[in-house]
Amino acid sequence: MSDTRRAARRRPFLLLVLVLVLVAGAGTAAWRLLLQGEEKDARAVAVDAFLDAWASGDAPAAGRATSDPARATARLTAHAKDLPGARFELRRGERDGGRSSGRDGDLYPFRVTLHLKGGDRFTYDSVAPLVRTGDDWRVAWSPAVVHPRLTDGSKLAATTESRRAEILSADGTPLDGLAPALVGAPGTSGLHYRYEKQLAGRAASGVAIVGTSTGRTLATLHTSKGDGGSPVRTTLDKSTQKAAEAALRGLSKNAAIVAVRPSTGEIVAAADNPPTGENRALRGQYPPGSDFKVVTAAALIGGGMSTSTPTPCPKYVTVNGQRFENQDLFELPEGATFADDFAHSCNTGIIAQRDRLTPSSLTDTAKAFGIGQSWDVGAVTFDGSVPVATSANDQAAAMIGQGRVQASPLVMASVAATVKDGTFRQPVLVPAAVKQRAKAPVRLEPPVASQLRTLMRAVVTEGSGKALRGMSGEPGAKTGTAEYGDATPPRTHAWFIGYRGDLAFAVLIEDGGSGGKDAGPVAAAFLKGVEERR
Question: What pLDDT is stored for residue 288 in this prediction?
């Protein structure tokens, strides 16, 4: 065989060997690339395991994906508590292959989005350094993993900055501690509770770095804009409110004063004693006693009586075996008129006129004073109750403000205001919140209103309202002593209602004795205080 043929036969063999060598070399390179890909995936899997567990709130699982499970678990658990209500969204970026963390690890960047309470968001970037532990990759733990600026001595914490609005008086200035029982405490009681959303608005939320042991803010990382609250403007007149609070100061009994403007129905004072706690002025439920005789007188006058109608006033009167008495068993001389009985608060003379009324007379007449309607005042109120009489005894008790008749100091101040103005104007405290004022379904006829003013003036000039005698402005009044409870002798609340000028008021002293003797001086002190502060 020639050398040429031998050479030709060797070429395919050499080419095959060369191809195999090249293929073998290429295969080695491909295998190396595959190994590198698996190595890269293992690191990414380690980072993802840590981030997924952290985002789901599983601190122990996140801790196990780190080089220091105990410390990482404790820190991440505390981190969730330091940011209450926050939701963590974590997203891994591409590997930052140019930098080294430790002997054989890489840094993997990730982005943290904190969905904060209230809908605000805060986003920042951090990195997860990896370290090999045996055959596994783990996140090399340090507080800087949570946030690059954290150390063992600091932590992230949620912050809030509230720009709460204030409750204002009628002139637009803050009440500055006045009417605390009415105003209440932020978020818990009174007007603050009723108008919490309006007053609080949306607080500015944020995230800060604070000292772990000191709680001192080291750096503010994020603050939302927030929305400040809007003030609530009331009709309270600061000088009148101060006069009411001063008149109650020093009393050892629970008490209240309410004052309204007859011409508008605006509540200009609502004071309670003690000054904090229960709001008796607007929400109290009490038998009004003889103060209710204003409504009874309106019913009787509407039925044909007049101020001059003869009305005997004996010490006591009996209705179906039940004895009704005058306070201290007083009686008026022969020839007493309806005006005399009203001025001296004679129970027996009034009750003796019960046959002039039907079972619903007082209920119907009370409607002219707004009692029985649902009042939209801008605050929680008790708006009074005068049920239809079920018997002669029930009717007799109701005529003197006892039995099932109930009222608040606000209701009784409004009764006085209705007499003064001649028209029921539903009291209002927060005008902007009032959608529709209650209206009296029946009218207080002008002649009736005129005679009521005559009767209430006589209470001051001739009768039990002598505490206001000599005051300017021709004030009118009605005293009331309301029995309550089962004690013998009965315990009594002291009432005094009245008006002077464009100011009507009611004074209540719980377990306070007599209306004229005990509540009268408080009413006088209130009116004098109003005059001094003008």
Answer: 98
